């Protein structure tokens, strides 16, 4: 899959835009690859490679 500039997600931004979220429908899946790290897939389509996972908790 090739993303055009309007849906491109740069690591430095730290957040995905609405066009990127639209690629995750209907069933996003987080998968671990031995050499690529965490990948985000939508059925058989890879949406993101090298996803970083951080612990997040809301302050009460």
Description:
With 60 residues, this protein is mainly beta. The chain has one domain. 8% of the residues lie in helices and 32% in strands. It contains one helix and three strands, in the order αβββ. Strands 1-2-3 form a three-stranded antiparallel beta sheet, with no helix packed on it. A hairpin with a 2-residue loop joins strand 2 and strand 3 (45-51). Mean pLDDT is 68; it is low at 1-13.
Task: From the structure above, extract its key features.
60 residues, mainly beta, three-stranded antiparallel beta sheet
Taking Cα atoms only, what radius of gyration do you get, to the nearest Å? 13 Å
Residue-averaged pLDDT, rounded?
A: 68
Spatially, the strands of the biggest sheet line up as 1-2-3
Number of strands: 3
- The first-to-last residue Cα distance is 40 Å
Question: How is the secondary structure organized here?
Answer:
Blueprint: H1 18-22, E1 28-33, E2 37-42, E3 45-51
Antiparallel strand pairs: 1-2, 2-3
Can you give me a brief rundown of this structure?
With 60 residues, this protein is mostly beta strands. Helix content is 8%, strand content 32%. The chain has one domain (5-51).
């Amino acid at each position: 899959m090739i993303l055009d500039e309007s849906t491109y997600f740069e690591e430095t931004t730290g957040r995905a835009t609405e066009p990127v979220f639209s690629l995750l429908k209907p069933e996003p899946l987080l998968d671990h690859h031995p050499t690529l790290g965490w990948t985000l897939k939508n059925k058989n389509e890879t949406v993101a490679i090298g996803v970083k996972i951080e612990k997040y908790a809301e302050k009460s």
